[in-house]
Amino acid sequence: MDRETIIELQNLIVGYKKGNQTFPVMKFPDIKVQKGDFIAIAGQNGIGKSTLIKTLVQLIPKVSGEVLIKGKVSSLYSRTKLASLISYVSTEVVHAQQITVRDLVAFGRYPYTNWFGKIEREDWTIIEEAIEMLELEQLAPRFIDEISDGERQRTMIARALAQQTEVVILDEPTAFLDLPHKHEIINLLGKLTREHHKTIIFTTHDLGIAIREVDKLWLLSNDGFYNGSPEDLILNGTISKTFNTKKVSFDNRRGEFEVKKTYKPFFYITGKTTAIHWTRNAIEKDGFTVLDKETESQPVISIEQNPSGYHWNILYEGKVVTLKSILELRAYIRYNFVQNNLRS
Amino acid sequence: MKIPIKEVIRTIFSGISSREEWSAIIFDFRIPKAATAILAGIALSVSGLQMQTIFRNPLAGPYVLGISSGASLGVALVILGYTSVVGNLMSDWAGKWLIIFASWIGSGLVLLLIMAVSVRIKDIMTILILGMMFGSIISAIVSALQYFSDEALLKSYVIWTMGSVSNVSGNQIYIFAACILAGLLISLSSVKYLNMLLLGENYARTMGLNIKAARLMIFLSTSILTGTVTAFCGPIGFIGIAVPHLCRILMQTGDQKHLMYSSILAGSAVMLLSDILSLLPGKGTVLPLNTVTAIIGIPIVIFIIMKNNRNS
After folding, report:
1. A contacts of B205 (beta carbons < 8 Å)
2. Residues 65..94 of B with a Cβ closer than 8 Å to A: which?
3. In A78-205, where does DSSP find H-type helix?
4. Which terminus of chain B is more solvent-facing, meaning fewer CB atoms within 10 Å of its CB: N or C?
5. Residue from B261, B83, B101, B232 nearest B163 by CA
6. Residue A245 three-state SS
7. Radius of gyration from C-alpha coordinates of chain A
């Protein structure tokens, strides 16, 4: 079944103006966004993610082309009408004094209130629902200049939900959040697309989290624009091509970025999976990578567990050295191996 | 003139007084004066609140756009320039109206300038700075006029700059009240916009606000309110800066609707109080109104600065 098209980009070029000159930042192919789409926009700093988002919510004018919203050119909508179709959450920090979290969420109802901004009983039901969804009940009576950046970010998202728009556009919604809340917010946004059929577009630098949740990824890079499911973009190598730098590469299997190692594979590790994972994590900090198979000539770290905890045995050149913590292990390795294992 | 309280109450409610001059004093002088003080207090406080919100600056006040400078120029031209030819205008009826019109035209011109600028310029801080610069240029012109004028005229001009609520009499009070109410209506219908602007202009726009229309509306009401007060009472300082803050402290809210209602109440109360204090109860002398508003207002402003300093 074909879903309704909500947003359509036609030959869009976004950019900014300085005086009479325009500076195009990014050109887009024709794209259709359908009702219920959950889209993350990723790309390096300065590539034009925020410019695109601000163009979509009509905060800055486009350079050329068109943005259609529900089949109509977006600039033809009145501000109020547009505010009932698209809500927006930015990275701007709101500094209003003596405004409570509940007041701020209630401001989301303004596109629907009379000229005096009167909040009716039905509005309050919607406001309280939004507060509940973002788990802000405890914070609701607090002033927004007295809560943390992350809590304020959740308040701004609740306000966008109270605005009850079909489309929600967010600029780096996870920027100020701690790791559990990053996952939670992206997961919640996903839920809104599936259960409430909202269309959600957001920019992010938390690619790992986005890959796990979103339907589509828009990749902005110097070579152009890529649009697809995150899985497809991983499999066809687009993500590594877009983000890999001299020092950092994208691990296609784990879906995370890693600093490239400049040392030859060196150790072989045996033991329980979790212990191997974190031991590997530790020795990679010193630039050692880990062998996939045991060889005769290379040293082996075997991890054993007894009631007093883990210990690490290093076997090399016929000797065995036992170490009681990763801290000791790293110190030993650094002292004995770094000098005779030069960069390749 | 001392009139017993009982007599005052009886005169107000029955219209008759045991001595005829008492009822004349109450109806022709004291009630218009009290009404003027109330209306001026409301106008300045509401304008101050609007300016503090739109410029996101706690020290902004009703005169931040340079409206009082515009009014001063008009009045200075009339008193210091024109009067020297025709005679002293402060005393007679036509002269008072001439001063009022001159002041209105002065503040109206500044308003037009600000409006023209705000349609073209996006950045609100640029508008604030331009407003202050206009004000400074105009003040410079006024200073030059003062320098070249003779002493008696200079004194009547200086008296005008000290502010007074006792010059509005007779039919003037109706026109004064009508203008203030018109300005107030525009202000009341902009509370929603002011609340949206608390979140910053980008958020306000995505919530459906037409920034330019909202700014024009807020500037228009501020100019009508402060322009009218300045025309009838002279420039009255500090009320407009201090009262909104007093309300923020008392009400513990940033919601513009509550702040506007409370500024209306507190503004009229503080202005009446200032006027009463300026009479130096028990003594025969009268202090200039601006000295009293400064003495009441400045401690509040200092308190705010210290409080903001502690927070950050």
Report:
1. 58-59, 79
2. none
3. 79-83, 101-107, 121-133, 149-162, 179-195
4. C
5. B232
6. coil
7. 26
- Written as six digits, the tokens of A20 are 């009479």
Q: What is the CATH number of domain B5-311?
A: 1.10.3470.10
Return d(Cα A194, Cα A187) in angstroms, integer. 11
Question: How many CA within 13 A on the CB side of residue A258?
Answer: 15
B22-58 residues labelled b (16+ CB within 10 A) or e (exposed): bbebbeeebebbbbbbbbbbbbbbbbbbbbbbbbbeb
Across the interface, which of B207, B210, B248 has its CB nearest the CB of A98?
Answer: B248
Q: Map residue A3 onto helix, strand or coil.
A: coil
pLDDT tens for chain B, 312 residues: list them.
Answer: 678 888 888 888 887 777 888 888 888 888 899 999 999 999 999 999 999 999 888 888 888 878 888 888 988 888 877 665 555 555 566 777 888 888 888 888 888 888 788 778 878 888 888 888 888 898 899 888 888 888 888 888 888 889 888 888 778 899 899 999 999 999 999 999 999 999 999 999 999 999 989 998 999 999 899 989 998 898 998 999 999 999 998 899 999 999 999 999 999 999 999 999 998 766 778 889 999 999 988 898 888 778 766 655
User: Would you list the domain boundaries of chain B?
Assistant: 5-311
A-chain CB neighbours of B202 within 8 Å are 59, 88, 90, 92
CA distance A119 to B264: 22
Distance from CA of A192 to the nearest CA of B (A): 20
Burial A177-209 (b: 16+ CB within 10 A, else e): beeebbbbbbebbbebbeeeebbbbbbbebbbb
